[in-house]
Design a protein that fits this description.
Fucolectin tachylectin-4 pentraxin-1 domain-containing protein; two-stranded antiparallel sheet; Jelly Rolls; little secondary structure; 79 residues; Galactose-bd-like_sf
Length: 79
């Protein structure tokens, strides 16, 4: 996994609150998508997520090198 731990950014970051998350103030930042954990339940604080109500959301990754990539796997939230 050449993406593991590499710098990632997203257009905005959702900050958890007691209504949606067990952890008040938890930032669902872009780095959660490349931390090596494949837990797909958002409520386990393991998914990156952009802020609600934002249009044209994006996420990006810097692999910091050139690689020949044959497969990309994206895990979608399961909840």
């Amino acid at each position: 996994n050449v993406a593991l731990g590499k710098p990632a950014n997203q257009s905005s970051t959702y900050i958890g609150n007691s209504h949606w998350s067990d952890t008040d103030g938890f930032p669902y930042d872009a780095s959660l998508a490349v931390d090596g954990k494949v837990e797909t339940n958002f409520h386990n604080n393991s998914c990156s997520n952009t802020a609600a109500g934002k249009s044209s959301a994006w996420w990006e990754l810097d692999l910091e090198n050139l690689y020949f990539i044959t497969t990309i796997t994206i895990y979608q939230r399961s909840d």
